[in-house]
């Protein structure tokens, strides 16, 4: 169940409206690094948790609801950047969206389809997709995915902060960057509370793995290379359950030959055998 209040989570002001920046902000709404992604990701992860994981469910849902507020903030920022643009630019946009795109670099659909407001799309106008969401049902795996999601989101927000000169936009993005810092750290700390966060899933019996390769870095170079002595080719593994080693070549075995397909699915043309091509002088016509 959700409740809402008619105020933004954090104040959003735009001092120098910029339709082009509005287009870039769309990436932070509906892009692969955007707030729609993390809000839905954390919700679906929370909804998958069974009884006994209440503290993690609450952590995920609290953060998901906060991310919904971030979407609202960014949508407000997009609208203010579009609708507060100079009068001459607005008149040109009303003549033709193509002119607006040429003048400002804005997404024409923000004018054509949304009446100069935000949309659930990325900066190229590609609609948000649930394919961005990682919700595996495995808490450890999902928490690692959340660290990555916040890392890419924070990277995007810092790039937007560097791009704009508008004080209001810098202030809003500074807040979002700070929240990404917190969220990265909370997911990392939550991982530390799990007994066996790696390897994922921890429930699989490791004795069933191929013990020859479960901690071996395997080179894929054609020419054999010596062990470079990196931290991932020697020494104890992070999970404390093995020692890294190095193999200079892939195991390699077997041939790449496909079995015969079902005749009903075989679209290959019939091949003429050598005997069919031979000149058989003994063959007589009927």
Automatic annotation (TrEMBL):
Domain of life: Archaea
Region of interest (Disordered), ranges: 220-286
Any Pfam family hit: Mn_catalase
Transmembrane segments: none
Similarity comment text for this entry: Belongs to the manganese catalase family.
Name of the protein in its database record: Catalase
Source organism per UniProt: Natrialba asiatica (strain ATCC 700177 / DSM 12278 / JCM 9576 / FERM P-10747 / NBRC 102637 / 172P1)
């Amino acid at each position: 169940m959700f409740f809402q209040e008619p105020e933004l989570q954090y104040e959003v002001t735009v001092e120098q409206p910029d339709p082009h920046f509005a287009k870039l902000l769309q990436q932070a709404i509906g892009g692969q690094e955007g707030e729609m992604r993390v809000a839905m990701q954390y919700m679906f992860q929370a909804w998958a948790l069974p009884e006994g994981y209440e503290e993690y469910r609450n952590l995920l849902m609290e953060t998901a609801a906060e991310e919904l507020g971030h979407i609202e903030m960014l949508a407000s920022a997009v609208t203010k950047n579009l609708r507060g643009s100079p009068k001459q630019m607005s008149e040109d946009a009303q003549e033709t969206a193509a002119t607006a795109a040429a003048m400002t670099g804005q997404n024409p659909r923000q004018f054509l389809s949304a009446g100069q407001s935000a949309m659930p799309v990325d900066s190229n106008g590609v609609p948000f997709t649930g394919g961005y969401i990682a919700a595996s049902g495995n808490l450890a795996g999902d928490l690692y995915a959340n660290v990555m999601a916040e890392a890419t989101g924070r990277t995007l927000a810092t790039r937007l902060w560097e791009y704009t000169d508008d004080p209001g936009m810098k202030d809003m993005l500074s807040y979002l960057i700070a929240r990404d810092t917190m969220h990265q750290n909370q997911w990392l700390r939550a991982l530390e509370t799990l007994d066996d966060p790696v390897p994922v899933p921890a429930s699989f019996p490791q004795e069933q793995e191929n013990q020859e390769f479960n901690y071996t870095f395997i080179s894929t170079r054609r020419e054999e290379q010596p062990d470079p002595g990196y931290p991932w080719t020697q020494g104890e593994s992070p999970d404390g359950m093995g020692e890294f080693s190095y193999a200079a070549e892939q195991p390699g075995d077997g041939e790449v030959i496909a079995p015969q397909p079902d005749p009903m699915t075989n679209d290959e043309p019939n091949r003429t055998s050598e005997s069919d091509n031979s000149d058989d002088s003994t063959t007589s016509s009927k």
